[in-house]
Amino acid sequence: MAAKLIDGKAVSQKIKMQVKTRVEKLAQQGIVPGLAVVLVGEDSASLTYVKNKKKTCEALGMRSDLHQFPDTLTEQELLAKIDELNSDPGIHGILVQLPLPQQIDEFKVITAISPEKDVDGFHPISVGNMMIGKDAFLPCTPHGIMELLAHYGIDPAGKHAVVIGRSNIVGKPIGQLLLQKDATVTYCHSKTKDLANFTAQADILIAAIGRAKFIDRTFIKPGAVIIDVGMNRDENGKLCGDVDFEDVQETASFVTPVPGGVGPMTIAMLMENTLESAEKGLAKTKQA
Ligand code: NAP
């Protein structure tokens, strides 16, 4: 029997419609959620991501400002821009598109963003709060994965979740969020010996590697839920994930496609975080 498709496009659409309704409610109180996106350089993939974010914001009735700079921008100049955005009351979320050019220290930039506007969830304060289960903006891709699991009634409690990848933006946080939902979590990475030995024990397998079609049926346990985070190009230049989607069909119980799985969820969660930031701002104003 073929695995059930986890349709990130459909679920993200539903979330975006909920966001739009909440944006309309806020508008009645004179607030328009605003996202500032900062792009340094001309990286074509980054430009595409940034344009998609802007388009989605606008479709949901949110404000989106793109601040684009040449790759010669200095660290001081970027930090000054962030300062300005931190104190702009019309901006509720700040996103600096990564990667940044060599001369700019990524960590300095991330930590310069006010945690109250850190809709990417990358600031160490956001990460720390997430780790201890306190209120924080959750990083968008892991948050999107958790929403997908919930939508399809996949409860991580008591399951063995194996995460391949340990990046700060995907691997590490998704493991933490699964742990908070009572999964038993194993992290694997490029130095893991006998990867298949671990993945074959996974009830939920998260592939966040960045290698085209790396995971095939030989890596997975029958009935496993497979979440494919990867965004790669195959030998024909076609977008594909870390998982060989066709090959795992008969073995997996659920699988996310690429495109149309985790990707659209990431953007929907960014919209939700920006809206929440605006809602929190309004609640504070009312309290004051
Ligand atoms: P990353 O920072 O490059 O991390 C990749 C991870 O995979 C590293 O931890 C690395 O291990 C591990 N790895 C590499 N080769 C491996 C191997 N042969 N066996 C086991 N582990 C291996 O990448 P990332 O930012 O987490 O992104 C991962 C993928 O997700 C990329 O394709 C990216 O484009 C995609 N992505 C998609 C979205 C979305 O919205 N859909 C969002 C973010 C990222 P080491 O730590 O030992 O090097």
TrEMBL record:
GO terms for molecular function: methenyltetrahydrofolate cyclohydrolase activity; methylenetetrahydrofolate dehydrogenase (NADP+) activity. NADP(+) binds at G165, R166, S167. It catalyses: (6R)-5,10-methylene-5,6,7,8-tetrahydrofolate + NADP(+) = (6R)-5,10-methenyltetrahydrofolate + NADPH; (6R)-5,10-methenyltetrahydrofolate + H2O = (6R)-10-formyltetrahydrofolate + H(+). This is Bifunctional protein FolD. PANTHER family: C-1-TETRAHYDROFOLATE SYNTHASE, CYTOPLASMIC (PTHR48099:SF5), C-1-TETRAHYDROFOLATE SYNTHASE, CYTOPLASMIC-RELATED (PTHR48099). It holds the Pfam family THF_DHG_CYH. Pathway: One-carbon metabolism; tetrahydrofolate interconversion. Catalyzes the oxidation of 5,10-methylenetetrahydrofolate to 5,10-methenyltetrahydrofolate and then the hydrolysis of 5,10-methenyltetrahydrofolate to 10-formyltetrahydrofolate. CDD domains: NAD_bind_m-THF_DH_Cyclohyd. Residues 6-120 form the Tetrahydrofolate dehydrogenase/cyclohydrolase catalytic domain. InterPro entries: Aminoacid_DH-like_N_sf, NAD(P)-bd_dom_sf, THF_DH/CycHdrlase, THF_DH/CycHdrlase_cat_dom, THF_DH/CycHdrlase_CS, THF_DH/CycHdrlase_NAD-bd_dom. Coiled coil: none annotated. NCBIfam families: PRK10792.1, PRK14186.1, PRK14189.1. Keywords: Amino-acid biosynthesis, Histidine biosynthesis, Hydrolase, Methionine biosynthesis, Multifunctional enzyme, NADP, One-carbon metabolism, Oxidoreductase, Purine biosynthesis. The lineage of its organism: Bacteria, Bacillati, Bacillota, Bacilli, Bacillales. Homodimer. Its EC number is 1.5.1.5, 3.5.4.9. It comes from the Bacteria. The keyword Nucleotide-binding does not apply. Residues 139-280 form the Tetrahydrofolate dehydrogenase/cyclohydrolase NAD(P)-binding domain. Belongs to the tetrahydrofolate dehydrogenase/cyclohydrolase family. The keyword Transport does not apply. PROSITE patterns: THF_DHG_CYH_1 (PS00766), THF_DHG_CYH_2 (PS00767). SUPFAM superfamilies: Aminoacid dehydrogenase-like, N-terminal domain, NAD(P)-binding Rossmann-fold domains.
